[in-house]
Amino acid sequence: MATLKYTLRQLVETSEQTGMQVTSENWGSIRDFLLYFDRHYKPLLEQLKQEWSCEQDAKRFLAQDILEIFK
Q1: Among 65, 5, 70, which Cα is nearest to 40's?
Q2: pTM for the complete prediction?
Q3: Taken in order 7, 9, 10, 14, is the CA torsion positive or negative?
Q4: How far is CA 28 from CA 14, 22, 33, 42, 69, in A?
Q5: What average pLDDT does this structure show over 51-69?
Q6: DSSP line for the chain
C-alpha cells in the first residue's frame, strides 16, 4: 500500500474539507496561523534566508527549514 504524503498546509486543507478543524491553543485554527504566517513571517524569513545564505552556523538553516515546514 502506498503511503500518502501531505505537506502541513495540504493536511490542514484536506482535514477542513472533511469537516475537521486543526486547532492551536494560541491561534484558533491552524488555517488562521497559516494566513498570518503568509502575511508576516514568510516575507521576513525569505529576507533572512537571503541575508544568512553565507552564514556558517545554525542561522543558515533556520529560515529555510521554517519555510519548508509551512510550504
Answers
A1: 70
A2: 0.73
A3: positive
A4: 17, 9, 8, 19, 19
A5: 82
A6: -PPP---HHHHHHHHHHTT---EETTTEEHHHHHHHIIIIIHHHHHHHHHHTTT--STHHHHHHHHHHHT-
